[in-house]
Every structure is written in C-alpha cells, then in structure tokens.
Amino acid sequence: MGQIKAAITAVAGYVPDNIVSNKDLEQMVDTNDEWIVSRTGIKNRHIEKDPTKATSDMAVEAVNELLKKRGIGPEEIDMIVVGTVTADYPFPDTANLIAAKIGATNAFGFDINAACSGFIYSITTAAKFIETGTYKKILVVGADKMSSIINYEDRATCIIFGDGAGVVLLEPDNQGFGIEDTVLGGDGSGVEFLRMKAGGSLHPASAETVANKEHFVFQEGRVVFKAAIKGMSECIKEVMEKNNLSTEDVDFMIPHQANKRIIYGVADQLDFPHDKVLVNIEEYGNTTAATIPLCLRDFENKFKKGDRIILAAFGGGFTWGSVMLKWAY
Ligand code: UT7
After folding, report:
1. 245 and 157 housed in the same domain
2. Could you say which residues of the chain have pLDDT below 50?
3. How many domains does the chain have?
4. Using a 6 Å cutoff on CB, does residue 260 contact ligand 1?
5. 274 catalytic per annotation
C-alpha cells in the first residue's frame, strides 16, 4: 500500500442561466466589446438575477450534480470546505448552510477567505484531512456571487466578474494518484490594491459607507495585473522545481481565470505551450473562487487517468498558490 493521497474523484459546477454580454454592458457603462475582449478575453458572464438566491444556492446546484454523478448520498460526506468572498452572511459560514441544504447530516465545514485563491487554499487544506486518514469524503467548493459586490457603474470592475460555483470530491487514493504537492503564499500589503472597503469591523456598514459605494470590489487593476503574473508564475515554477518537473512532464495547466492576458503571460514566462493551458474565461469572466473547479468541470473529458495537472491562482490579500496532481480517473 502506497502513501494516502487526496484524489479528485468527481467534479461538477453551476452557473446561472442569465447571461450578461459585452453588448449588454455597453448599455450600462462607457465601454465596448472590442476593449473588453482585447484587454481581458471576456465575452460573457453569467449573473444570478434572482435576489433570493445566494452563493450557497449556486453551490448546492453544483454539489447535487456531483453527488448524482458519483452515485453517493449526502450523508456520506464527512466535511465541506468552501472558498468564497461572498458568503451568504458574515456568519454563519456558507459550508454549514450548504450541508443543511443538501442533507449532509454527518458533515461539518468551514469557509476559507482567500479571494481568487480560495479554491487552491481550500483544496490544500482539505487534502490534509484525507492524507492523515481522518476523513474519506470531502467536498471542496469554490463559489462566488460576485454580482452581489460589484458596482455596475464602475467600468473598471463590472466587466470582469461573473457568478458561479464549482465543486470537487476528494477521496483517499493509495495507487499513486491525487494531489502530489502544493505551494501557498500570501502578502497582506496587497490589501491596498484589491479589497472591499467597508462592511467589516474596520468600517461597519453605515449610511456613509453605502453612500460612498464602499460595499463593492475596489481594485487597482494595473498593479494587480503585474502582481498576478509574477505571483502565479513563481508558485507554478516553485512546485515544478521542487518536484524536478519540466513543462513536458505536465499535461495541463489550469490557471485562475482573471484575464486572458494574465493567463498567457504566465504561460509565456514559464514556456508553457498554450495548448496545455485550459481557458474558459470567454464564457464566465472571473468567478473568483469558482474559476478553477469550473475549468475542471468544463475540461473533464480531456483528462486521462494519470495526467499531471497544475492548478494555480492569485488574488486579493494578496494570496496565491499552486497544486500539482495526478488525475485519478
Ligand atoms: O482575480 C484576481 C484579481 N484580479 C485580476 O487579476 C485583474 C487584474 N487586472 C486586469 O485584469 C486589468 O488591469 C483590467 C482588465 C482591470 C484593466 O485592464 P488594463 O489594460 O490594465 O487597463 P488600465 O486600467 O490600464 O486602463 C487603460 C485605459 C484607461 O484609460 P486611459 O487612462 O488610458 O485614458 C481606462 O480608463 O482603459 C480605460 N478603461 C476602459 N475602457 C473601456 C478601463 N476600463 C475600461 C472599460 N472599457 N471597461
């Protein structure tokens, strides 16, 4: 028997039906399709229109699809970890709401707030509970209803973000498949360039914070752009060097989908052939913690058992990280 690794054994995802195209945004802010496509690669984003639906509801859609695909019941789930910055409430956490809604009566869970790196932080954390033999079935969710914190009068941010949820199931594997290594990093000085200014304990919600539109994403795009290319390239390089891998040893790279120019900038820094880099940003925009599991869902049919895949993200915090794994099915 080999060492226990945490393997992804199923993936699923959900995006709302309602599509907001670049043309739609042209009616809302001073922008145009040509600018958005050439600067970001985004054509559409899916936005939840129903005000009664929150992040947990999108996650529940994804999780229920996953349980059906894997042929297991909710009571078999031991633990749920949710990467999100758009929890339904400041507390309790979204993981507990999801557990209650799907009937995962034997599970506990918690949220991880690492912005666009939320899924990478979450899967790394969850993997440790599998590797130690503590739990057998863990749901790792990346979900964000970004439309709930986006100012649709701000052209610098509203064109980028979309809503969505993705989920993977982690189970133990002792045949050499699953997560082989991870790298996580952070730098809190990045708060200056990407944050939601109010609604936390520093600036609780008040008439003034609402009037100042401080409950929305604030971003200095150019700074984040450069930091994202550097941060993602370095953590991918680190995980490859630690394991003596070259790009030839890697079948696919799945970067966080924030901007097509960031994605291919990272690929070019590392001499990664573009056909190994999986991209679906055109259709969803940046769904924050959901981008990587949605990519796994969309490209699942491309993967063969034993394929080596590197996942990587960079986001608010700043936070970043990479995960190297062998596909298990
Ligand atoms: O998920 C992790 C966190 N987020 C990211 O990784 C995002 C990182 N940043 C970016 O992707 C890019 O910086 C943006 C897409 C946000 C912006 O692209 P950019 O190429 O960095 O544009 P910029 O901010 O340098 O702006 C260039 C020009 C400006 O006009 P001037 O000053 O040159 O006259 C902007 O006012 O483009 C203008 N502009 C727009 N024009 C049309 C900014 N937004 C828009 C817009 N439509 N939506």
Report:
1. no
2. none
3. 2
4. no
5. no
